[in-house]
Amino acid sequence: MNEFYKMTEKDAMVTVNGSTEPLSDQQVASNREKYGPNELVEGKQKSIIRLFFEQFKDFLVIILIFAAIISGILGDVESAIVILVVITINAILGTVQTVKAEQSLDSLKKMSAPEAKVFRGGQFIKIPASEITVGDRVSLEAGDFVPADGRIISNAGMKIDESALTGESLGVEKDVSVIEETVPLGDRLNMVYSGSFVTYGRGEFLVTAIGMETEVGKIATLLKTTSEKKTPLQVNLDNFGKKLSILILVFCGILFGISVFRGQPIGDAFLFAVALAVAAIPEALSSIVTIVLSFGTQKMAQEHAIIRKLQAVEGLGSVSVICSDKTGTLTQNKMTVEDYYVHGKKISSSDIDIGNNGERQLLLSSILCNDSTIADGKEIGDPTETALINIGIKLGISYDMERSVSIRTEEIPFDSDRKLMSTCHRLTGDRPDLFNGAENVMITKGAVDVLLNRVTAIQTAQGVRALTQQDITDIETCNSDFSQNGLRVLAFAYKEIKHGFVPGIDDENEMVFLGLISMMDPPREESMAAVAECIDAGIKPVMITGDHKVTAAAIAKKIGILKDESEACEGSSIDDMDDEQLKSYVEGISVYARVSPEHKIRIVRAWQDKGNIVAMTGDGVNDAPALKQADIGVAMGITGSEVSKDAAAMVLTDDNFATIVKAVENGRNIYKNIKNAIQFLLSGNFGAILVVLYASVFALPVPFAPVHLLFINLLTDSLPAIALGLEPHNADLMKEKPRPANESILTKDFLSKIGIGGLSICIMTVVAFLIGLNGWFTAGEFGGSALLGSTMAFGTLCSSRLFHGFNCKSDRPVIFTKRFWNNKYLIGAFLLGMILITMALAVPAFDHVFKVHALGIPQLLTVYGLAFLNIPVIQFIKLIQKKVKERKNNV
Ligand code: ATP
């Protein structure tokens, strides 16, 4: 086996690729063929057949199979066959739903799969990390995951967190030099390993192993698929379902006893009790939630929010605080240079004169201490830095040429804690003239307040002199003028260094101040509306930014986040507060400026301690802990680091604040829809039980045959429930306050709705039952009979439930509104259900199978009419409830 850490970079390249040249397209193709995709093999996915058979593991299905066998033994072969057919259809439906839900989760996972920057076709491009192959040159920077194992070929202060492999939690400082002796993995400083991530610096490496051949791959020869955890709502419903099931089973047991006591054959009584239990136990609750969540997340993905943790969808519905970065999320992140401040003068960008020494020096510094490039017209790099090279291009200065005569020798990369970036250069040609003859300089740029503390001298038209108090006042005044207009300001400084100097962060001092550059980053157009929507919806938007307080406040005011300057503070002002003090402080603050990632965690915690559900955005490597702490960590899909994406519950593919607000709206809608679907299922089940109870109390014949209950429960029930889960948004969704996070879904109000719905269904069904049983009104030529009674009860119960679907669309009356018709899935499920029940009721050939007496037109119309009555009755009750609520609110 090759020990690449013992080789020079060149030897490693030759060993892997046969030359020091980058991989050609052909080599990439053949290596991909040879080594396969860069993926860790996951545990085997369950096959469709297995999923199908798993549907039979359900306790109720087992009881049903048992019931079918007993029916068969008792000679009722038809019932046995019907039960088995219905169970099979149900299992097929269950399998299809599971496969669909899994597919949609898989596609979500793929959408948020990590990417890597790889040298292909003469330049670095971003590709999915799974497409990397052996021999590729991969570029790394702070926040990137290391996508494969490899030998480092260039290094600018890279520190790598290898804790996943070695357990060592401190970042390891990397180095390119050859290691002579044999050393363990943790000491191979010139290597990087898949599964670790870059916490600092930049570099490149040559891929030497991918996929299962990497060190992590070897540890985890077979990774088990991490099973998706159930969401709190699912757990809640599972518990509720279990308790309810026990209650129903006891009820059915008593019913069985009474029936036998009254002389019913044991077999029949048993079958009926089983069917009632199956019909009444809401076994589909948890799976309805899964299906609705998976459809919902797909819709959210189309709207630029990719959900990485399913739990987040429910959480989104109760978000009450959104803490958002400014740059790029609330603003466009399209920076343009507005002004220079140099030699004590403000110069608008249109008036910059590169013939002037000071202006030229500032311009060149801003191009050199800068990592951005433009390739094929595409801007690559930080927009702040791109703005700096764009102004140079406008003035006819090629950044490429400048960087080639002022060669970068060392660098200290930018990081948002330090708020500075430094580069060292060897100046050639006539460039030393610009820097007072210095041949080697270190240029530093960064936040004005930070850099001002590091400068002791100033560059003036007359040369370098000591910095005076007046200079500082002038610079600060200029900075605050720029900031008040919402401009982002960077300060520049330099100092002469010795040849071969390797800088550390302690060397960023005793510098010569060069000047300031202000940049415009306009707010996104959608931000204002999204902020207003948040406030309407009872959600507090908070801006948390690394930028200057005055700049941040100016932008926040424009967008509507901040009303008064007193609502803005600097991160450092919370340093001295303990958690209790911070808790009472956060409510009054809308803008935090100059914030470090540690501040973010404290702010999130303080809001959480006050009982809020907090969404928090983050993009840098240091933001990962805050993203994990937040209830909904939101990462930026475009500018965010891979590490932040990994820590987040949701990734925005457009980095846009408005998308978070839309996701909250979706979260609220999904939760409401799930609630409505559950209301639909439970009220229908409750209705059925009440009818049976009624018949039992009044010693009437059994109102339903077991097959009736199975027909309803397994065939006509689940589609409307799913359709309700797909109900579109309504306009008042974002006018309500957020749902309390700890609110159980089964509130008194919710249970009373189930009670009222169930009662209405029960009354209609009992009326139909009595008509058929006693031969009243429309029983017509049939005369009354137990069979006709149960046929009409079956028809009415089934169609009442279908009609009741429309009642469950909303808490408000919708009958004469467009909303009544706005869910095509519900209409489809209704029509399909009505066709099925009509066929069962009206086609004489099914009489035996479904234990019915084929109905004529008058009886059918009676059934439909009674079932339809559920709509006006419930809608009327909703209208009264609405009026009472309004009156209460007005008092
Ligand atoms: P947000 O936190 O809202 O995304 P931000 O981009 O201003 O805002 P940071 O990236 O943490 O936050 O930047 C903090 C400060 O560091 C900026 O206000 C600026 O003064 C300085 N800064 C930003 N980018 C650079 C850079 N590339 N080089 C040097 N200094 C920078």
UniProtKB/TrEMBL annotation:
Residues 3-76 form the Cation-transporting P-type ATPase N-terminal domain. One of its GO terms (molecular function) is ATP hydrolysis activity. Its main location: membrane. It is found in: Membrane. It is a multi-pass membrane protein. InterPro entries: ATPase_P-typ_cation-transptr_C, ATPase_P-typ_cation-transptr_N, ATPase_P-typ_cyto_dom_N, ATPase_P-typ_P_site, ATPase_P-typ_TM_dom_sf, ATPase_P-typ_transduc_dom_A_sf, ATPase_P-type_domA, HAD-like_sf. CDD domains: P-type_ATPase_Ca_prok. Keywords: ATP-binding, Membrane, Nucleotide-binding, Translocase, Transmembrane, Transmembrane helix. Pfam families: Cation_ATPase (PF13246), Cation_ATPase_C (PF00689), Cation_ATPase_N (PF00690), E1-E2_ATPase (PF00122). The chain crosses the membrane at residues 56-74, 80-99, 244-263, 269-293, 678-700, 706-726, 754-776, 782-804, 825-846, 861-880. GO terms for cellular component: membrane. PANTHER family: CALCIUM-TRANSPORTING ATPASE. Belongs to the cation transport ATPase (P-type) (TC 3.A.3) family. Type IIA subfamily. This is Cation-translocating P-type ATPase.
